[in-house]
Structure formats: structure tokens, C-alpha cells
Amino acid sequence: MNARANFVRMQDSTREDWQAIGGEFMHFAQGLPDRVMAHLKLLEGDYGGFPVDRCTHSLQTATRALRDGRDEEYVVSALLHDIGDTLGSFNHPDIAAAILQPFVGEANHWMVQHHGIFQGHYFFHHIGLDRDLRDRFRNHPHYERTAEFCELYDNPAFDPKGETLPIGEFEPMLRRLMREPRQSVYKAALAPETA
Fold it and tell me: Which residues contact residue 117 at a Cβ distance below 8 angstroms, ignoring those fewer than 6 apart?
């Protein structure tokens, strides 16, 4: 696919330009799971001082959620919760939440977006921060879900001897989840035209 639009300013674009762009976009969008998997693999060997590398931590978190019987959306959310570490050193949960947002429900999106503050309950006091910072969300409907995610899956997933399923175990789930967005400003444009 090598179709290209002919405008130099978007305001001068035409329907034909956008048909060309749309065709390219559909092809590009189908590769999203491959790009996400490749980015997860970038976390291999990146320890950042932790007992396990960031990829192992992500896989352990997802493994724990899978073994606990969580649904695929939750497991993929667990798998990707720290994918933003490489690009969002100061806001990694926001990066992961942005990647997941078109594909997951509100509860899992909120959980991933806020897990950093909730995970802080286990270590913030060691670095001069308030370990109870999460309590400002005490009345939020997803507070308990996020606290539980950190307690059961994120917090204990730094074990060099812990069960760590290979990334291939999660790939089919990731592909199913990212097959089609649940919500996106572009969702209507992605729907096939009916005659």
C-alpha cells in the first residue's frame, strides 16, 4: 500500500485524499498488535534496578491474573499496564491507558491509568511520598478494583522464581482485544459502508 494524498495543507484535502489515507490507515491499524508485542519485547533486559526486568514483570502480572481466572480484557490490561515505562518515565500509566482506551471498558482503563498511584501504597513512604495518596480516590467506583489489581497482581510480580508465562501465551488475547476498537472518534469511519 503506497497511496498518498495530494494536499500540503489539511484544509485543502479532498474526499479522494481521505479515501487514500483511510485505505492506508486500515492496513496500518491491523499491525497494531504486532507493534504492541514488539514494544513489550523492548522491556526485556530493562531492569531499572528491579529484581526482574520490566518484560518479566509485565508477564508475571498477566500470568497471575490469568491463573486467577480473570477475563481476557483484564489479562491484557495487566500485560500492558507498564508498557509505557520506556517512553513515559514520569507518567507510564497514562501511556498504557492511552494504548488500551479504545479497546477496554471504563473499569480496566481507569485501573491501568491509576495503578501507579495505587502501587505507591507499597513503596512511596520509602522515597518521601505519601503512601496513602490513593485515598484521594477512596469514593471512586473503581478504587477497590485498582487496589486489588495492585495487591494481587502488580505488587507481587517481581519474583525471579515466579511463574512467568511466555509472551506467546498472551498474543492471541491481545490480537482478539485489538481486532476492533470499542470506542474511538474514528469508529464510525471504520465501519464498512452499507449499500
Answer: 93, 133, 134, 137
